[in-house]
Amino acid sequence: MYDFDEFEPVLHRDSDSLYVINFWATWCKPCVKELAYFDQLETQFKGEKIKVILVSLDFEENIETQVKPFLLKKNIRSEVMVMDDANSTEWLEKVDPSWSGTIPATVIYSKKGRSFYEKEFTKEEINKLVRSHLNKL
After folding, report:
1. What is the pTM for the complete model shown?
2. Is the pLDDT of residue 89 over 90?
């Protein structure tokens, strides 16, 4: 469990990798639908400098009963962080000024730039987008 102050450094890592950070929750159907696409990115782009971090916005009381069983059932292998910070009006704009708070939402960044997407992706869309960002590294 992280509050935003603890999580924020993840949004600003200074390395030569591409970071794909997806905000999701088990109760969000579009999030659940696309989660496997994000989880497969590190395997699909093996040998590339890519790091996927899945940030659950599930409620703390549901971590043991819903989030952990969900991750095991879906065989999620990417790094998962759970953010528990009720002050979303304060931290949403720190993730991206345009974020309304809707999920799924995704930040993709490297030293070459940052992009924010407040939408659901198809497998083809996220793969093409990641390839485009990796080509700029």
Report:
1. 0.95
2. no
